[in-house]
Design brief:
Radius of gyration: 22 Å
Distance between the termini: 42 Å
Helix content: 40-55%
Structural class: alpha/beta
Largest sheet: 11 strands, mixed
Strand content: 5-15%
Shape: globular
Number of strands: 15
Length: 520
């Protein structure tokens, strides 16, 4: 049965630029002076308990991995509460500062959960899009694939590509909302979880965000940095906020772009995210009906009704594509969500909807594939679906009782008149998940940290603006920068001069923008 997912996914808007799905991001930097690195006498093991000094004192064996970058790996405890036990490997990439000499390291995470990150250091097209020239000149750019992310880190493994196709794209056998539909949804979630446990083993219980934040502190130390310069987008802001709360005295200048509110329950987070995509869809439709090529007619409200009817019609009459898969309503919602991550894809979305109305599903399926990191040959570029599920299910407990699921679905339908009926799948994503949650929603304060910049975009569908407002308020030394506009996250090479100036001056020299800065 198709899984119509939300929750801090990648940012498809950049596919045309770099050939891959790009991710939701957030920025961070260190409070050291511009152009300075760690002191010569810096001891990476200072302050580390005796049982952890071997991890903090390790040396990275860097080797050339192309395009001017070096790659390496960290060895870290599988279970931070039992550091003498099994270990995991976390892959790293580093591109030296263009200015030459000894520079600070800017560590970046592109979100997900589950987004691979090495290419943001190793691929020049990624670097040039996500890091302005000032950052590339003043910082060594360092990225890491968190524990669980496939590639060279110890990965979460669940199913093969054919099985993933079934999980993501198969149509339900029973009508939506019926007891049989709910039972089918629960069975699929449970089977997926069991496959993850069987193929991943004990790592599945240790991919939580708190463990990743502790990994990040080891990375800080082995890079020779008394404080961490950090760039995190979307889910990467949850990593950054968790790190700041655990190690406030080691925070440099963090910029958290497309912020996640760590105080929200899983239920509230999903409901608010559905509302965010609903609002983004309304903005798309308002723009669309002003164009002669729009597949809808009348007012934006009328267009919303037409869109909902088109999606619902795919439940009864799914459309086939050339490889035999069928476009049902859930996959259509995934396709629409994919395009709503960036205003630059609104034209692509309008054309895909027009073709669906004409019986051609190929363009819509391509948008869904982009969201799911599925290549044209049927392989998957990464394991982001597995990691997203594993991290969210361990980080955030959810009410899995029938009453709790019913309440959640009612709230989802209310939050999204267009999308809600399709996102209310009859069961929670973590239904039957084999690993109990270890995290709990909580406010973060990072008491004693350096100032932390939090950026929110007013029309962000995946991380609603209210989340950035909340996170900035929670942090003792957090401050909010508002990006007025549509799309997921703010800072990149296409950002406004206002956002670019605020972010880069803060990261490079610690200069804070005017209080309450709004970039329009």
């Amino acid at each position: 049965m198709t899984r119509a997912k939300t929750a801090f996914r990648t940012r498809p808007a950049l596919a045309a630029l770099v050939g891959l799905v790009a991710l939701a991001l957030a920025l961070g930097g260190c409070a050291l002076g511009p152009g300075t690195g760690a002191a010569d006498d810096f001891d990476p093991t200072q302050g580390a308990p005796a049982e952890l000094q071997g991890f903090y004192g390790q040396q990275i064996d860097w080797s050339d991995c192309g395009d001017g970058a070096d790659c390496g790996a960290l060895t870290l405890p599988l279970d931070w509460s039992q550091p003498q036990g099994d270990t995991v490997s976390v892959a790293l990439a580093r591109k030296a500062a263009d200015g030459g000499g000894h520079h600070r390291a800017l560590v970046m995470n592109p979100g997900g959960p589950g987004a691979p990150a090495l290419q943001y250091a190793t691929d020049k097209s990624y670097r040039d899009y996500f890091f302005g020239s000032a950052l590339q000149r003043e910082f060594d750019i360092v990225t890491f694939d968190p524990r669980g992310v496939a590639g060279k880190s110890t990965p979460v493994r669940c199913v093969d590509a054919t099985q993933m196709d079934h999980y993501l794209y198969d149509l339900p056998a029973s009508p939506r909302g019926t007891p049989a539909y709910i039972a089918e949804s629960e069975a699929n979630s449970k089977a997926f979880g069991e496959a993850c446990q069987a193929n991943t083993g004990t790592l599945l219980g240790h991919v939580d965000t708190a463990s990743v934040a502790r990994d990040l502190d080891v990375l800080r130390a082995v890079l020779g940095q008394p404080q961490l310069d950090y760039l995190g987008y979307s889910y990467g802001t949850r990593i950054g906020a968790t790190y700041a709360d655990l190690f406030p005295e080691r925070v440099g200048a963090f910029v958290l772009d497309g912020a996640v509110d760590p105080s929200l329950s899983s239920e509230d987070m999903l409901v608010e995210q559905v509302g965010g995509f609903e609002s983004a869809a309304r903005s798309f439709l308002q723009n669309c009906v002003s164009n002669a090529s729009c597949p809808f007619t009348g007012t934006p409200d009328a267009a919303a009704t037409q869109l909902a009817a088109l999606i619902a019609g795919l439940d009864q009459h799914p459309l086939s594509v050339s490889d035999g898969r069928r476009l049902g309503s859930d996959t259509m919602v995934t396709a629409i969500s994919s395009a709503l991550y960036s205003r630059s894809q609104w034209g692509t979305l309008a054309r895909a909807i027009t073709r669906v109305s004409q019986g051609d599903a190929q363009s819509a399926m391509a948008l869904a594939d982009q969201y799911n990191s599925r290549s044209a040959d049927g392989t998957y570029e990464d394991n982001s679906t597995e990691v997203l599920t594993a991290v969210n299910c361990i980080d955030m407990p959810a009410d899995q009782t029938p009453e709790g699921v019913q309440r959640l679905n009612e709230r989802i339908r209310a939050a999204g008149p267009v999308f809600g009926q399709f996102q209310a799948n009859g069961t929670a994503m973590c239904s039957g998940w084999p690993v109990p949650p270890t995290g709990t929603p909580h406010r973060v304060s990072a008491t004693g940290s350096a100032p932390i910049m939090v950026i929110g975009t007013t029309g962000d569908p995946a991380t609603p603006y209210a989340w950035a407002q909340s996170l900035a308020d929670q942090l003792d030394h957090g401050f909010l920068v508002t990006n007025v506009g549509e799309g997921h996250t703010a800072y990149s090479s296409t950002a406004s001069t206002c956002i670019t100036r605020a972010v880069e001056r803060f990261l490079v020299s610690g200069e804070q923008p005017a209080d309450g800065l709004r970039c329009e």
